[in-house]
Amino acid sequence: MKKICIFAGTTEGRKLAEFLDAQPVSTMVCVATQYGEELLEHADHVKVSAERLPEDSIREMLEKERFDLVIDATHPYAVSVSENIKNACEETGVEYQRLLREGSDGRTANICVGNMEEAARYLAGTQGKILLTTGSKEVGAFSGIEGFEERVYARVLPMESSIESCRKAGLKTSHIIAMQGPFTQSFNEALLKELSISWMVTKDGGDPGGFREKQEAAERTGIGLVVVGRPAQTKGYTYGEMIRFLCSRYDLSRTPNVTIAGIGPGSRETMTKEVLDAAAAADCLIGAGRMLEHMAAARQETFEAISPDAITGFIREHTEYQNFTVLMSGDTGFFSGTRKLLESLSGKELSCRVRVLPGISSLSYLCSRLGVSYEDIRMVSLHGREHDIVREVCEHSKVFVLVGGKDGTAELCRTLTDAGLGDAKLSVGERLSYKEEKITVGKAEDLQEQTFDPLSAVLIEYNSEGKNRIVTHGLPDEMFERGSKESGIVPMTKREIRSICLSYLGLTKDAVCWDIGAGTGSVAIEMALQATEGQVFAVEKDPDAARLIEVNAKKLGALHVTVVEGKAPDACSDLPAPTHVFVGGSSGNLRQILETVRQKNPAAVIVVTAVTLETAAQLSLLAGEPEYADAQITSVNIAGGRKAGPYHLMTARNPVTIFCFGRKEA
Questions:
Q1: CA distances for 144 relative to 120, 140, 152, 171, 333, angstroms
Q2: In this structure, are residues 50 and 149 in contact, taking their beta carbons and an 8 Å threshold?
Q3: Please, which residues have CB within 8 angstroms of residue 448's CB and are 6 or more apart in sequence?
Q4: Spatial CA neighbour of 439 closest among 535, 366, 359
Q5: What value does the mean pLDDT of the chain take?
Q6: Homologous superfamily in CATH for domain 254-357
């Protein structure tokens, strides 16, 4: 078994010891204080030595223990100690590696700067209260920080000259702490907590100047420590690099802990304690930028990502972190990315321990604000996806909608209004749970020109009594716009024939449908109303008819009808493979159209109507060919009633022959 010795004087050294505690190596950790020993008291497989070792003692220990590797994780200011360790390794022939404390990126334990001016510039870009322990003469360097009078405190010697220097710099008397040191770590810690300090500024005064006590107090309270005049570090590995080095050198590995946490609407007040604890305990927080900005603690490592592949890849590559917390908006089980992330995390390339923490959903939050129960609410998301919202509103008295996009809510209102649902009541929640929270209530037709937050939650309430939407196929012909005598009446498959053809098609809710020679779009629209989770493409060569299809689709709430202007089969080349096809007009390209469909999907169900004898004859010949031998042929003769004075007569319409190919009867 390999033997590793760590001289640990930093947080990184402690973390490294914790990592090795779970590895098949023998580890000894040398710390110089009882506090350092306490930090490692939960280690099960690590031996801890809490003695201050001079160079001779270090050399003797190395000769006795015969370590394979010594890692110098002492504090950057402990220059002489580090030099002693390095010399002892050279004399005994033991490999020496330096664990570096990373630079001033605002997230490591210390922020090191060259002078007071640099310290002031750095702190000007932060938030929270500041404690200066650099002496009264240096206070003026920080007076330019915005909010100086409220943010900055100074601990100085109890001398009139010191107090006067602070006053001249603009510091309030109540923010001047005049005391004589030395100060213990516990005293520093108590002071930092009492004043709610976020940042402490100190010089490198060494042990006589109380630097160690300040360092330990800062680590205990989790605040940022800005150090002026840091000595240059020798070459070595950062913590992450060291972990990767050890894993490569000794074939080590670790199983990361991944917590997927629902942060609710967003404010910390609405998050569960379990979620807050998971975020605080994370070695690395992952999530969208706006979440990280709100949730990350000072100096906490973060990775901005929302893609499951990007998140999984980052976790796999960054072995230096043990605990990851992935932030998810709302509830992890409510229109969340959690499901796809779980699938990604369960892949063969990554082994990890995963737990999922729920959050308060925007649904429950908005309904609580409105005083509305939600057990009978239909839940829909329009955030990055399409949905037949008109059908949902017609079929359910209460619909909750997650809206996304700059103009998403206004577009939702326009869609409802265009479909005749303008009197639907909408309650729009913006920035829920934040101070800027706003809930707007009004009718869809009145809200369609307003601007709302891109991520809004909407409750739609609609009394459909007396306005029930027809759910069976065979809509009345009068419901479709057909143009005018002046512009030309667009051909349309009539109600009775349309109903029979749809029955032959046997649509499923996720069907991919083509309506070729769509005319007014009557068949395409009825397809869409049945295939509510599918795709419908209306192919029409006449530009006027194509525009009419869009009008009818919007009017009847068939929002997922896509109009394809062009002549079949060429216009169908880029369309997805269909499962169901209706051909109402072929413009002489019937065989080519059927061949294109079969090439795309040999199992597609195809229904073709023939009004002329020539088309019927062509289809009859096709039905005799082996590839179309499954044809079902039906001749339909319909007569409609009309008044003639006091009497009613039946008037025959043109007979229609319906050919169905590919339908497998049960």
A1: 8, 8, 11, 12, 48
A2: no
A3: 410, 413, 414, 417
A4: 366
A5: 89
A6: Tetrapyrrole methylase, N-terminal domain (3.40.1010.10)
User: What tokens were used for 300?
Assistant: 């906490």
Residue 86 has pLDDT above 50, yes or no: yes
* 651, β-bridge pairs: 640
Give the CATH class of 363-461: alpha beta
**CA-to-CA distance for 501 and 609, rounded, in angstroms?**
8
Which of these, 192, 194, 195, lies nearest to 225 by C-alpha position?
A: 192
**Residue 422 contacts residue 450 (beta carbons within 8 Å):** no
Give me the pLDDT at residue 488, please.
79
Check if 3-98 and 110-228 are the same fold: yes
Contacts 24+ apart (CB under 8 A), 50-54: 54/84
Q: Where are the domains of the chain?
A: 3-98, 110-228, 254-357, 363-461, 477-661
Residue 46's closest CA among 82, 15, 75? 15
Res 104 pLDDT > 60: no
Torsion angles phi and psi, residue 484, rounded to 5: -135, 170
Specify the pLDDT at position 391.
83
CATH code for the domain defined by 477-661:
3.40.50.150
Whether residue 71 contacts residue 99, with contact meaning beta carbons closer than 8 Å, is answered with: yes
> Both tokens of residue 235?
């070459």
Q: What is the second-level CATH architecture of the domain 110-228? A: 3-Layer(aba) Sandwich (3.40)
pLDDT tens digits, one per residue of 307-333: 999 999 999 888 888 899 999 999 999
As to burial, measured by CB atoms within 10 angstroms (0-12 exposed, 13-18 middle, 19+ buried), residue 605 is buried
Residue 569 has pLDDT above 70, yes or no: yes
44 within 8 A of 70, measured Cβ to Cβ: no
CA dist., res. 458 & res. 428, Å (int): 4
Beta bridge partners, 538, equal: 515, 563
pLDDT tens, 379-400? 999 876 677 788 889 888 999 9
What is the C-alpha to C-alpha distance for residues 300 and 105, in angstroms, rounded to an integer? 11
- pLDDT, greater one: 51 or 356: 356
pLDDT at 543 over 90: yes
Residue 107 reports pLDDT greater than 50: no
* Contact present, 591 and 598 (Cβ < 8 Å): no
Q: Which CATH class is domain 3-98?
A: alpha beta
Q: How far is CA 360 from the centre of its chain?
A: 16
Helix axes 543-555, 522-530, angle to 10 degrees: 40
With beta carbons less than 8 A apart as the criterion, state whether 515 and 524 touch. yes
- Contact in structure between 301 and 342 (CB atoms under 8 Å): no
Residues 114, 103 contacting (CB under 8 angstroms): no
The four Cα atoms 513, 518, 523, 524 give a dihedral, to 10 degrees, of 40
Q: For the chain, what percent of residues have pLDDT higher than 70?
A: 93
Strand partners, 633: 659
Q: For residue 345, give every residue at least 6 positions away whose Cβ sits within 8 Å of its Cβ, in sequence order, or none.
A: 258, 308, 312, 315, 352, 354
Give me the residues paired with residue 48 across strands.
Answer: 29
Task: Strand 284-287: give its sheet, edge to edge.
Answer: 301-304, 284-287, 323-328, 257-262, 353-357
